[in-house]
Amino acid sequence: MHIPDGFVDAPTSAVAGVVAAGSVAVAARRCGEQLGERQVPLAAVTAAFIFAAQMLNFPVAAGTSGHLLGGVLAAVLVGPWAGVVCITVVLAVQALLFADGGLTALGLNVVNLAVVGCLGGWLVYRALRAVLPDRAAGVELAAGLAAFASVPLAAAAFVLEFAVGGTADVDLGRVLAAMVGTHVLIGVGEGVLTALVVGAVLRARPDLVRDGPGAPHPPAPGVGAEEVPG
C-alpha cells in the first residue's frame, strides 16, 4: 500500500502533498483543541504500537502479504483527528528512516492511509455504531468491519491517483482489479486484528475507547461528531 517514488508523476504528487499538508494541519489544530492530558500519551502509544505492528506481515495469497494499516484502530482509540496525526507520523518515520514509501510520494501515502484510512474508516465505524448493539461486542464488530472497509477504500484512492498521474503503462482496469481485489483480502486481516485489539482494550480499559458502550450518539455519523470525552 505504501507508494514508492516514481509510480505517480510529480504534479499529482505535489497536489496530494498540498492536500495532505492541509489535512494534517487541520487535524493537528483539532487535536490541540480536543486532546486532554490523558489522551496525549495514549496517542503516542497508539502511534508506536501501529508502527511496530506494521513491521509484521501476514500472508494473503501466493506471493502476496499484508500488514496492519491501523487507521481505524487509531481513530477508535484516540479519535479520527488524532488518528490522522498518528498515522502521518508513522508514515513519515517509515519513509525517512526505512525507505518504506517514497519521500516524493509521502503526500500520496498520507492522503490514502491517514486521511482516507482514518476519516473514511471513522465514518463507517460511526454508521455501524448507530445500528449495532451498544455493547462491547457491537463496538468490536463495528471497529472490525470499519477497518476492513478502510483498506479497499485506501486502495481505491490510489487507483484514482494512478488514473490521474500514473507513470506506468498499465491498463487501469487491471490496476483497479489487482489493488482492490488484493486489498479486500488484506482488509480481512486488518478487520480481525483491529477487532482483537479493540476488544482487548475494552476488557482492560473501556474508558480508552472513543464512542465506546454507553457513550452518547449524535443524530448522524460525521467526522466532527466524535467530540465525546473518551
Describe this structure in words.
With 230 residues, this protein is mostly helical. It has a single domain (10-225), classed as Arp2/3 complex 21 kDa subunit ARPC3. The protein has seven helices and two strands. The protein has a two-stranded antiparallel sheet with strand order 1-2. Strand 1 (57-61) and strand 2 (64-67) form a beta hairpin. Helix 1 (10-34) packs across helix 4 (80-98) and helix 5 (106-131) runs antiparallel to helix 6. The longest helix is centred in the C-terminal third of the chain and has 33 residues, at 172-204. The two termini are 30 Å apart. The model is unreliable at 218-222 and 224-230 (pLDDT under 50).
Features:
two-stranded antiparallel sheet; mainly alpha; 7 helices; Arp2/3 complex 21 kDa subunit ARPC3; 2 strands; single chain; disordered C terminus; 230 residues
Number of domains in the coordinates?
1
In the CATH hierarchy, the architecture is Orthogonal Bundle
Helical amount among residues, as a percent range? 55-70%
Number of distinct beta strands? 2
User: Class by helix and strand content?
Assistant: mainly alpha
CATH class: Mainly Alpha
Q: Give start-end ranges of low-pLDDT stretches.
A: 218-222, 224-230
Arithmetic mean pLDDT:
84
Quote the distance from N terminus to C terminus: 30 Å
Order of adjacent strands in the largest pleated sheet: 1-2
Shape: globular
Radius of gyration: 17 Å
Strand content: under 5%
